[in-house]
Amino acid sequence: MARTPLTSITPTDLLDAGETPEPAAWGFATRAIRTGHRRTAEGEHSEPLFLTSSFVFQNAAEAAARFAGEAPGNVYSRFTNPTVRAFEERLAALEGGECCVATASGMAAILAVCLGLLKSGDRILASHSLFGTTTVLFDKYLSRFGIRTSYVPLSDLEAWASAIDGRTRLLFCETPSNPLAEMVDLRALAEIAHRYGALLVVDNCLCTPALQRPLALGSDLVVHSATKYLDGQGRCLGGAVVGDRQRVGEEVYGVLRTAGPSLSPFNAWVLLKGLETLELRMLAQAQAAQALAEWLRGQPAVLRVHYPGLADHPQYHLVGTQQRTGGALVSFEVAGGRAAAWRVIDSTRLLSITANLGDVKTTITHPATTTHARLTPEQRAAAGISEGLIRIAVGLEALDDIKTDLARGLNALSCPCS
Ligand SMILES: *Cc1c(COP(=O)(O)O)cnc(C)c1O
């Protein structure tokens, strides 16, 4: 049997002569490590980084043909770049989508979906519990162009079904939500969307395809903030849209090449490396989060723990079916509101006080005054963000060290002498 070709490897390349090219689809981890790499003549083992803004042509006729779209090939990195394409192919393979386009950030991915698929008069129906900036994008900016957004409680299917109408073009949700880890049944929500000819768009940031694949559950598009778990080490911004060739490959891609929020090739290279360890990281971080949630529930100063892997979580039944585990985000409430929550946060020495998540470094955040501060008090209340709420995005440090760091502040809260 011939050695696999040096230039690129796909599942079909691994078949013996005569075997039907119905490619034994690779396992997730293999796709995460092998898909999208086209080796150059140098025979490099790691994915090459094409830091170039433009590409040269053999002659004027070839330039003309590429500009006209009559000949394949690169023109300019706002349109295509080989390193960016490798990331797109790999993420598409992981999400199980036909097509992926990468963007400069998660917000650019959401904006590109809206610009590519909506027009004035269309409506978005979204969940209350969204990433704060997504709400600002919808309410402050898209509304100026005649696109109105209404909000419903994420897990309430009846509320979605009664709020949708013939002008609703997009249903938009994050499941699980940040920071309370609420979930919605994606199969049921996709049915509601499709009954009205609308599309279901899922922000799959918190689970990543390692834990949840919304397209296989009937969703139409997936958006990502690659800044979070896809990179996984807090190094760069990035985003992506995954879906079918027409909507993503034509409509959303058209916005990117015209409006310009394309992913930098350098960031694409960093993200490619992130994807290689995605499944290992997600499983390990989720396991640590499960253990931390159970430990937090036993702490006297903690009123309530929000974690999907706890049996008292309202959508516990979706863990192990819709999403593989509870994920890596744990939130909890302490008595005493903002002062008590800030005290716990300020007593940590190891955890990073930062609004970011999806890092191997564990982070701690007070959502009401940071990630969700731009919401009105009414919007915050509707999203369930109380002043005593603390969010932990669990990383990969030794779990005992994370517990020790949190115990310092929690013990101080329950100590009457302090
Ligand atoms: C961070 C985040 C975004 C925005 O992504 P950026 O890369 O920061 O633009 C969107 N959705 C969710 C759920 C996020 O956590």
TrEMBL record:
Pfam families: Cys_Met_Meta_PP. Pathway: Amino-acid biosynthesis; L-methionine biosynthesis via de novo pathway; L-homocysteine from O-succinyl-L-homoserine: step 1/1. It comes from the Bacteria. Its EC number is 2.5.1.-. Residues 1-21 are annotated as: Disordered. PROSITE patterns: CYS_MET_METAB_PP. It catalyses: O-succinyl-L-homoserine + hydrogen sulfide = L-homocysteine + succinate. Keywords: Amino-acid biosynthesis, Methionine biosynthesis, Pyridoxal phosphate, Transferase. Coiled coil: none annotated. GO terms for cellular component: cytoplasm. Belongs to the trans-sulfuration enzymes family. MetZ subfamily. NCBIfam families: O_suc_HS_sulf, PRK08133.1. Homotetramer. PANTHER family: CYSTATHIONINE GAMMA-LYASE, TRANS-SULFURATION ENZYME FAMILY MEMBER. This is O-succinylhomoserine sulfhydrylase. The lineage of its organism: Bacteria, Pseudomonadati, Pseudomonadota, Gammaproteobacteria, Chromatiales. The gene is metZ.
